[in-house]
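Readers outside the structure-tokenisation community will struggle with the description of the input data as it stands. What matters is that the chain and its backbone geometry are given together, residue for residue. For illustration, here is how one protein appears when written out as sequence plus structure tokens:

…
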Amino acid sequence: MTYDPTGHLLLTPIDKEAPARVQRLRELGLGERPDPAFDDFAHRLAEVTGAPFSMVNFIDENRQFFAGLHTPEGTHSGSDLGAAAAGGGVGRFMARDHGYCPHVVVRRKALVLEDVCDYPRFAGNPVVDEIGIRSYMGAPLIDRTGVALGTICVVDTDVRPWGRAGLETIKTMAAELMEQIHRREDGRF
């Protein structure tokens, strides 16, 4: 675990790969605007998992960007998630220190939290109080160059027993999306 100089547990992991990720995202033209194909993917991810919220999330040094977004109210083009949350909606951007996807990117492996409150490291995350997130499942999007571009994830305001089947589903769908991104890069949409 990582601690700050005062001995407090840091909630957001140190991300030494961020500069390489930002460069790779620019090369691929990802992470700066919503993408209808990623919105469609997020919608399908929500259907497959039964989750009310799902995202295709690209992460830079300071923020997370939901290039694909599905919410119970539909897709949104709002700006800041924190500001949107205060009004009851979800937007396309979120601070890097909010949520669980930065952990998935740094760890480079899937994360399943059936009840985030069962884990002290994750229970204190701002999304628990600000948005009411209680359950999370995400997998990294690792491209052919070995860079973790971001994640796909689903969240719920209720505790969810995702189980092993959920873990396998999220990992399979992450691999599927990476194939789609590689086809785009190769010009084979």
Q: What stands out?
A: Confidence is low (pLDDT under 50) at residues 1-8, 77-88. The first strand starts at residue 53 and ends at 59. The first helix runs from residue 18 to 28. The chain has seven helices and six strands.
